[in-house]
Design goal:
Number of helices: 10
Radius of gyration: 21 Å
Number of domains: 2
Strand content: under 5%
Shape: globular
Order of helices and strands: HHHHHHHHHH
Number of strands: 0
Largest sheet: none
Distance between the termini: 31 Å
Structural class: mainly alpha
Length: 288
């Protein structure tokens, strides 16, 4: 017996709901640490990680914040899964973001080990699990973002988000290098920069998903022609014929042709980053 196809309206509602959950999770996480910054005013943000708020009073709020943003990240992964046709190119970032969501939850369950008076740390199994979860979270979101930017560039429904995704992925890498390089007195600020970029990307992804029509293929209802643009013959850069009005509002492919040359002249750092990522076979932009 064949399972009936899911109604379009229901699928649209579910995907948008996943986007809302993702944005709400990020918003709750940010709000929690803003409040804790004033409640635990004795914790110097320049020198201490955000996880150390869990060691003070109202530390349970930190645990709850990590759990909430973890659920939100899992919702974004599920929304991406439902927004694209099955395939290895999509399955990889979905799996990575799912792992990142689980890592958020692990960060909430296991607390970081406190610094001792001499500046060292007595590591415990829970503290090690916390550190490993943070590393896995970072790798999952960064690599997932780099792969997703290729997925977005290959599907007209997501054109416009691939550039922001590349910028934020490069930003996460740069901020992480800075965090390793800065002195101990500034490591807290550097970590907050990395986390801020991560959360920004998750929020942007959720907001876009909230506005996405997974069937017509565009967050703009009046652009129904976009569905025809989501599949190009054999990776060709050519597009179907559009009306004069459509041609004015169609998203531009900024990663090839004249647009790529213009980008290289006006934004060389972004062009270099794109060329570097394109050098990795698994991260090439694929048109489908």
């Amino acid at each position: 017996m064949t399972t009936p196809a899911e109604p379009t309206s229901r699928r649209l509602l579910v995907v948008r709901l996943f986007g809302v959950i993702g944005v709400a999770g990020v918003a709750y996480f940010v709000a929690t640490f803003v409040v804790l910054h004033f409640v635990q005013w004795g914790l110097n943000p320049a020198q201490h990680f955000i996880s150390e708020y869990a060691l003070g009073r109202l530390g349970w709020l930190v645990t709850l914040a990590f759990l909430v943003v973890g659920v939100g990240t899992l919702a974004l992964a599920r929304g991406l899964h439902r927004s694209f046709e099955p395939g290895e190119l999509v399955a990889t970032p979905v799996a990575l973001i799912t792992i990142a969501g689980i890592s958020f939850i692990v960060l909430g369950i296991f607390k970081i080990d406190p610094l001792l008076e001499d500046g060292t740390t007595a590591y415990t199994p829970a503290g090690i699990a916390h550190l490993l979860a943070g590393l896995v979270l970072f790798l999952g979101l960064v690599v997932g973002a780099f792969v997703l930017r290729g997925v977005f560039a290959g599907d007209a429904r997501w054109w416009g988000l691939e550039e922001a995704t590349l910028r934020l992925a490069l930003g996460m890498l740069v901020a992480s290098v800075v965090m390793v390089a800065v002195p101990q007195q500034m490591v807290g600020l550097a970590q907050r920069a990395v986390v801020a970029i991560m959360l920004t990307w998750l929020a942007v992804l959720g907001w876009w998903m909230h506005r996405l029509d997974p069937v017509e293929g565009t967050p703009h209802k009046n652009m129904s022609y976009i569905r025809a643009l989501s599949k190009l013959d054999n990776g060709s850069r050519a597009r179907p014929a559009l009306s004069e009005h459509d041609e004015k509002i169609v998203p531009r492919d900024s990663w090839s042709g004249d647009w790529a040359k213009k980008r290289a002249a006006t934004q060389p750092w972004l062009s270099i980053g794109q060329q570097f990522i394109e050098g990795i076979p698994a991260m090439k932009i694929t048109r489908y």
